[in-house]
Amino acid sequence: MDNFLSLFETYDVAGAFWVNIQLTFWAAIWSFILGTILALMRISPIASLQWFGAAYVNIFRNTPLTVIIAFGVLGLWGQLNVVLAEDFQVNFLRLAILGLSIYHAAFVCEAIRSGVNTVPLGQAEAARAIGLSFLPAARLIILPQALRGAVAPLGNVLIALTKNSTVAFAGSVIESSNLMKEMIEFRGDLVIPIFFIFAMGFVIIVVPIGLLTTWLSRKLAVAR
Amino acid sequence: MSAQQVLFDAPGPKGKRRILLGNIAGVLLVLGLLGYVVVALAAQGQFEAAKWTPFLEWRTWEFFILPGLLSTLKAAAVAVVTSIAFGLLFGIGRLSHIAPIRWVAGLVVEFLRAVPVLLMMIFLWLALAQVGFIDDPIFVAVVTALTLYNGSVIAELVRSGVHGLPKGQREAAMAIGMTPGKSLRSIEIPQALVAMLPAMVSQFVVILKDSALGYIIGYAELLQFSRRLGVGEGNLLQSLLIAAFIFILINFALSSAANKLSTLLSFRTGRKVKQTEDPELAAAAPVP
Known about the structure:
The structure holds two protein chains of two kinds.
Chain A: H1 2-10, H2 13-43, H3 47-61, H4 65-79, H5 88-117, H6 121-129, H7 134-164, H8 176-186, H9 191-220
Helix pairs in contact in A: 2-3, 2-5, 2-7, 2-8, 3-5, 4-5, 5-7, 6-7, 7-9, 8-9
Chain B: H1 3-7, H2 13-43, H3 49-52, H4 58-95, H5 99-114, H6 117-131, H7 137-163, H8 167-175, H9 180-210, H10 222-233, H11 236-269, H12 279-283
């Protein structure tokens, strides 16, 4: 037991998880912004923007995240000399956030679009019938229902993003999966306990997000 | 409903003019963006012939890209088969009428779905290497980690597929004297499998994408080989782009197949399987 507790003294487990939380937080914000813009493009009546949104989603949804993150550090930084910060670690962190945001924006876009798709056509027709023009109809009738419908899929994207923040390992970021590898290599006698520390760490982060978004999506569900 | 139909009324002459103007602005915006990227890349000399000609040589394909693609496909194919087996086993476990089996299966599935695949992969790789009697711990670790995660997702698909069936199916099975287990195996699961087939094919895309995680633990797959090629030829950017392109091509084909299947099977299931309406189903939707 003393042996086990000494792990926490030697290694900064909480600090490693903090890096994952930072990655998740910033990537969540950026991918939400980018994903919303893409969703607006895809649902606009303008064909060229629709095409661009669809192309973006199809390209990045079908590329492995590992390739995108590796591209950030090997391609953007290594070949094109894109530097997002002077400090090496901060630079890698920001490149990883960039990669995570670009990848998950495709999923955010699809989540928002699926929310709009849950609104029945009759709602829009009724709104027009009572004389609401485009903006009031969108603001008062369609978007409130669409956003409620998008809560559950957006929650799933956030959960996936939290877990995928470990892939930043491929972008030379020192985070929890990286620390776990180091710990197992140095403490071969405690392989299973070390794995469970990290696995439970993710369970503790991910399960509440799942419960919260499921509860929220049920509470906000539009009764039809 | 399609989003355009909900948000926008059929445009009149004025609306059509506005859409045309918007379209022109949109085309200019997209072309401007692409042009900027092209100019920036050209300024860095990324379009030099020397960086692209290696891909015209058979040697490159023979020693780098095809062997890489082959190991990627090998890991993904094995993981697809084992994931389906795992998913069926635990999906049936979650539906069992014996409560302890249900709890254990539920606990295992929920745990595996919450843990990042990479974490499992690294753990399995180092643990198997330590145990020592397995020839190729890296490959086994990649396949096992993919199986544990995607198998759990498939288990959820099986469960939600069975829950999505009309109650009458089970009642009819009971009425002709089947036990709950027999009804599950002979009546409910076969129908659920048909309904969940499109979602399962989408999950194969996730398996193929996640097989690239093997790159991190040193599995010689497509990404790994592309990096070696790029380091050797000094064209990392181009090699990674080609690797990404191959991944996109295969995954796009798989996604299209899943969509086709969903339309083809809709007459058998009586409805297109929608994933966003029911939170239970949404939880099992194939997000990476």
